[in-house]
Amino acid sequence: MFKEIVTDVFFDLDHTLWDFERNSALTFEKILSENNIPVDLPNFLEVYVPANLAFWKLYREEKITKEALRYQRLKSVFDKLGLSVVDEMIHKLSEEYILYLSSYNHLFPNTIEILEYLKPKYRLHIITNGFQEIQGKKLRNSNIDGYFEHVIDSEMAGVKKPNPRIFELALNKANIASKNALMVGDSLEADILGAKDSGFHILHFNAHNEPFHEFCPIIQDLSEIKTFL
User: Fold this and answer.
1) Chain centre distance of CA 74
2) Are 226 and 117 in contact (CB under 8 A)?
3) In Å, what is the CA distance from 197 to each residue of 26, 129, 193?
4) CA pair distance 82, 34, nearest whole angstrom
5) What is the mean pLDDT of the segment spanning 1-18?
6) Average pLDDT of span 94-99
7) What whole-number distance in Å separates Cα of residue 148 and Cα of residue 205?
């Protein structure tokens, strides 16, 4: 479908290549245990995962700061679970979470396979809303940094997906027109609609089992990219 025109493939990182939920769970297993927080991990994650997504949405929309995101996502979960955790400990857990998160490096199935398939044929890049301080570590520690020519993050761009400026920066870095670019990501709002509005071709990796839509093709496994490229 895209073979004749696409020269550059842009990937989101978290929830698309890098298995954020799995690595995040392992990080919390470590820091909650080591800090003696009396909470059952599955119960904690059941509340934390949707809370984190909700606070990230607020962060994308410039409604909260990075610091507020990191504090509030934990504070709100502890409050909902009825746990009394002092602010000093919440800040400690927040710092340790960032410190240890990139030390876990599980990728989605077939990530390496599809990158190996694409690399000889296309230029590959990353566009991420993640924090600059840890996204590079994730790429290096999971041994996929060498596949990508440019890594564009929201702190570099000064805006977050779906703001068109981050997609424009990506196109400028790659020195290509949007008609030659394909964006692959998990977030319908940030990745798919954001890239579509900037003229990219789009491919939705449905990591969250979202409802069917007609904005673009939907894939359930990264290996399905071979169908299109």
Assistant:
1) 19
2) yes
3) 36, 17, 6
4) 20
5) 94
6) 95
7) 19
Three-state helix/strand/coil letters over 91-117: HHHHHHHHHHHCCCCCECCCHHHHHHH
Tokens of 198: 């900037």
Long-range (24+ apart) CB contacts under 8 A made by 145-148 are 147/115, 147/119, 148/11, 148/124
Tell me the two tokens of residue 99.
């410190």
Please give the sequence-ordered ranges of beta strands (E in DSSP) within the chain, or none if there are none.
8-11, 123-128, 150-153, 181-185, 201-205, 218-219
DSSP character at residue 210: P
Q: Which two tokens stand for residue 144?
A: 């996929």
User: How far is the CA of 40 from the CAs of 85, 86, 179, in angstroms?
Assistant: 15, 18, 49
Q: What are the tens digits of pLDDT across the range 165-202?
A: 999 999 999 999 999 999 999 999 999 999 999 999 99
The structure tokens listed for 192 are 């798919």
- Give the Cβ contact number of residue 215 at 10 Å: 11
Q: Is this prediction's pTM over 0.90?
A: yes
Asked if omega into 162 is within 30° of 0 (cis), the reply is yes
